[in-house]
Write a structure and sequence with these properties.
Pfam families: HATPase_c, HisKA, Response_reg. The protein is an alpha/beta fold. The protein is built from nine helices and twelve strands. It has helices spanning 13-25, 37-46, 64-74, 88-95, 109-197, 204-235, 248-262, 284-300, 357-367, and strands at residues 5-9, 29-34, 51-55, 79-83, 101-104, 244-247, 268-274, 279-282, 307-315, 318-325, 371-377, 381-389. The strands form three sheets. The protein has a five-stranded parallel sheet, with helices on both faces. Helix 3 links the parallel strand 3 and strand 4. Helix 7 runs parallel beside helix 8. The longest helix has 89 residues, at 109-197.
Length: 392
């Protein structure tokens, strides 16, 4: 073991000298011998020690235990107690000062050296642990500070994103509303052209053809603007459930007329309205979005001559419906993307579309607290199942 600077605090002068001699044989340096706690503290004030050998019973006002408490607080030096007493009361007092070791008198030099070595090892490890704890606490403080700063940055970024989102929504809504009026005018003009073309005119066929093309294009643009307006409101959290009394047959007749008018394919829609009340209490705008988009998609992605089955019925306070087609279907690996905005399956080819319809359907059903599921296979068609709670 390497040489240590040791302070001996022992009120028995003979025992102190014997201890000094034994320690010096092991090349340790004795920086002083004190017979009281006061003298031990005075020596430590002017000399550096590696360890203190402390008798519990000392002359003076400070006993070994009190002196050890002061040494622990001021100098943080390991202390080894020396005592001829091993009773429970003494041991309890000793343990309270967290000593590095405890030696019962009389002791042999081998035992003493082992105790001192363990005391130094224990002290070193405790100080290393304290250093690691301090470093850890500093890292935690720094990480906490960094995290707080990052949270501030995130809060600022989220606030900026919210402001940008609101600005984007306002722009989208304003621009979309701005397009509505001219599109309505274009649609009216196209319809007038068709009326004039019904009269005898050398360019009657061409006028009807181009007027129809204009009308279909305007309807497509109008549908796209409606979708954009819908998501502008959705992003601004302005889509509310606004129930009102409505006539069921009138709602579905209007939807079917719009779908048939916008269809470019010769597809038959088989309609079954079963066990339905005359009126229901729900949000007609959201119901319109759901069924118009589902039926339009079913017709759009079917081929000429195919059929679409549309069935609606009332069951246990919910409006149930199925929309089944035998069209191109949806590849299985793309099923989980079906309701994503702007998603279009890879097998749609040149069929036009915005990829917003099913997103609108999904959002509308969520607002109505309903449920939607589907089954689809590529080349075999798709079936959507809808359930929406309503009041009669």
């Amino acid at each position: 073991m390497f040489p240590l600077r040791i302070l001996i605090t022992e009120d028995d002068h003979v025992s102190a000298l014997l201890l000094k001699k034994a320690l010096e044989k092991n090349n340790h340096e004795i920086i002083g011998i004190s017979d009281s706690g006061e003298k031990a503290l005075e020596i430590l004030e002017h000399n550096q020690a590696d360890i203190v050998m402390m008798d519990i019973n000392l002359a003076g006002e400070l006993d070994g235990i009190k002196t050890t408490e002061i040494i622990n607080e001021k100098y943080d030096i390991p202390v080894v107690y020396l005592s001829a007493s091993s009773d429970a009361e003494t041991l309890t007092k000793v343990v309270g000062t967290n000593p590095s070791a405890y030696v019962i008198k009389p002791f042999n030099i081998r035992e003493l050296n082992m105790v001192i070595e363990l005391a130094i090892f224990k002290d070193r490890k405790e100080k290393e642990l304290q250093k690691l704890n301090n470093e850890l606490e500093e890292k935690v403080r720094q990480r906490t500070k960094d995290l707080a700063e990052a949270n501030k940055e995130l809060t600022r970024a989220l606030e900026k994103e919210r402001e940008i989102g609101e600005l984007k929504s306002r722009i989208v809504l304003n621009v979309s509303h701005g397009f509505k009026t001219p599109l309505t005018s274009i649609l009216s003009s196209a319809q007038l052209l068709q009326q004039y073309a019904e009269r005898e005119h050398p360019f009657k066929a061409k006028i009807q053809k181009h007027a129809t093309k204009i009308e279909n294009s305007v309807r497509s643009l109008n549908s796209l603007l409606t979708s954009v307006l819908f998501f502008g409101k959705a992003d601004a959290n302005k889509i509310d459930f606004r129930p009102k009394k409505m006539f069921v047959a009138a709602l579905f007749n209007e939807i079917l007329d719009v779908v048939k008018a916008g269809s470019e394919h010769d597809v038959k829609i088989n309609v079954k309205l079963e066990n339905l009340p005359k009126t229901i209490f729900s949000d007609s705008d959201l119901l319109y979005q759901i069924f118009e988009n589902l039926l339009s998609n079913a017709v759009k992605y079917s081929k000429d001559g195919q059929e679409v089955d549309f069935t609606v019925w009332l069951e246990n306070g919910s409006l149930k419906a199925t929309v089944k087609d035998k069209g191109i279907g949806i590849p299985e690996k793309e099923h989980d993307q079906l309701y994503d905005r702007f998603f279009r399956a890879k097998n749609v080819g040149i069929i036009e579309g915005s990829g917003l319809g099913l997103s609108i359907v999904k959002k509308s059903i969520e607002v109505l607290n309903g449920d939607i599921t589907f089954e689809s296979a590529q080349g075999k068609g798709t079936t959507f199942n809808i359930s929406i709670p309503i009041q009669e």
